[in-house]
Amino acid sequence: AEGRASALLATLPPRWTAFHWHGDTFDLPAGATRLLRSEGCENQAFVVGENVLALQFHMEVTEDSLRQMLGHLDPGPEDTYVQSATEI
User: Fold this and answer.
1) Cα–Cα distance between 1 and 37 in angstroms, integer?
2) Nearest-angstrom CA–CA distance, 86 and 58
3) Rounded to two decimals, what is the model's pTM?
């Protein structure tokens, strides 16, 4: 993966499960370098120069914050990459 070469992601394991809560996607901006992709989302992380890191997933989610999110938000209709609140 492109991210293995980035010092910004060097401490991450080769594979992990990231929490996603988005229905949108995007093309990389001009000058960006993709770092991570997944089966469900082509542009998971990218950098622009040395000062901008963008992530399309949530590394900050804890069990408690997830419970709070599910108490206020609906994950949306289930499909290949969207789970029910119960399954999450």
Assistant:
1) 8
2) 19
3) 0.71
